[in-house]
Design goal:
Blueprint (H helix, E strand, L loop, with lengths): L1 E8 L3 H9 L1 H4 L6 E6 L12 E6 L10 E11 L3 E8 L3 E13 L2 E12 L4 H7 L1 H15 L18 H24 L6 H19 L6 H23 L6 H11 L1 H4 L3 H33 L9 H6 L2 H14 L7 H9 L2 H11 L3 H19 L1
Antiparallel strand pairs: 1-7, 2-3, 3-4, 4-5, 5-6, 6-7
Helix pairs in contact: 5-6, 5-7, 6-7, 6-10, 6-12, 7-10, 8-10, 10-15
Length: about 375
């Protein structure tokens, strides 16, 4: 579902930018109350990486239908552009808003585009009847308050753009990492982590595809992470292949993987257990260190660590997409137990993900903790 609003705000661009980005100013016109939860880059409530909650009132007069959307700021270009995405609090798979401001006769032209993909049936129909009218009323109210609004100092404009040559080199290096992971899977069929190495290659491939698209704000950061993830993983893999002791979290994971055959007679469940143990070791130990090391190496002193929070959330579906591809290639649905096939057909994707989070591994929760721990490690490194 795509929504587009276009209005002329009777105010200067700096005032218009304040109205669409500053939570306190947004509450002058929004029918949903906006609350700052965590500051972003430059310690600003509207800086890149900032978190905010949007408290949506109940529809049709039903307070039980009220909800709170959790949002993260992706782009903050003062007086020009502001983008955000919803990262929780609603049954949607994608919700991104992009606001562009352009000086024009009579003030500032506002172009606000929202793209939403729903995780439940009939979500779009419900949104057209409820969300769309509320947004339209809010935008009209913004026009009315604009003449008497005032500007608030925006976050510092920090340009992290890298040259085309440097970006090309980062892509080339990430491609080498992917090739090395594919080769490692092929060359180590008897290693307990072989199936995890396989899915790791899919994850890297999905990250590369994401970096080639237009969803990430900081592509170089993502490509640097691919390299850092790989270095940490290979440190323990190489030690294991030489018969030496790997890092403790991988040693524990390898032992669990090696026992999978005894615990799970079904191949699908056995492979799933091996992959899950690898994801746990990777997310809880390697990820925070990789995040901290990439920040310390390239970005310390240039921007704040939390600037990358939005891209971190944008990367979340990568593991799920990699898992789907892995299953399609190595575990066709015809080999699944009947109850798994039934659940996939009967439940929407959002409910399937929620089931996995509750009963197997709470990936989104642990990724959030990894990002926060990475910030603490980065503080020590810098």
């Amino acid at each position: 579902m795509d929504i587009h609003f276009s209005r002329v705000l009777p105010c200067a661009p700096d005032v218009a930018y304040t109205l669409v980005s500053d939570p306190a100013s947004m509450n002058l016109w929004s029918t949903a109350r906006v609350e700052s939860v965590a500051t972003g880059d430059d310690g600003h409530v509207a800086g890149v990486g900032a978190l905010r909650d949007v408290h949506v009132p109940g529809v049709f007069g039903l307070s039980a239908a009220a909800s709170t959307l959790h949002e993260v700021i992706l782009v903050a270009e003062p007086r020009k552009r502001f983008s955000y995405k919803v990262i929780g609090g609603a049954p949607i798979s994608t919700h991104r808003g992009d606001i562009v401001l352009t000086p024009c006769p009579g003030g500032t032209e506002l172009s606000w585009r929202v793209h939403i993909e729903f995780a439940i049936p009939f979500g779009e129909l419900f949104a057209k009847k409820t969300v769309l009218p509320e947004l339209a009323r809010s935008v009209d109210a913004m026009v009315k308050v604009a003449p008497n609004a005032s500007a608030v100092a925006p976050p510092a404009a920090r340009d992290l753009t890298v040259s085309e040559e440097e970006l090309a080199a980062l892509f080339e290096n990430a491609e080498r990492v992917h090739a090395a992971q594919v080769k490692l899977h092929r060359d180590t069929p008897d290693h307990p982590a072989n199936w995890f190495t396989c899915i790791y290659g899919y994850v890297t491939e999905e990250l590369l595809a994401l970096a080639r698209g237009d969803q990430l704000t900081h592509k170089a950061w993502c490509l640097d992470l691919i390299e850092q993830f790989h270095q940490l993983y290979m440190r323990s893999m190489n030690a294991s292949l030489r018969g030496e002791a790997p890092e403790s979290h991988w040693a524990s994971a390898y032992r669990a993987m090696a026992s999978a055959g005894e615990r799970f007679p079904r191949e699908l469940e056995r492979v799933g257990y091996i992959v899950a143990k690898g994801i746990q070791a990777h997310v809880e130990e390697d990820l925070p260190r990789a995040l901290a090391q990439v920040y310390a190496k390239r970005y310390a002193g240039i921007c704040d660590y939390v600037r990358f929070r939005g891209d971190w959330w944008t990367m979340l579906p990568v593991i799920s997409r990699a898992g789907d591809r892995f299953r399609d290639d190595h575990a066709p649905r015809s080999s699944w137990p009947r109850r798994y096939r039934w659940l996939e057909r009967a439940l929407p994707q959002a409910m399937q993900d929620a089931y996995v989070e509750k009963n197997h591994y709470a990936l989104s929760k642990h990724r959030k903790k990894a990002f926060e721990r990475g910030e603490r490690i980065a503080a020590m490194l810098t």
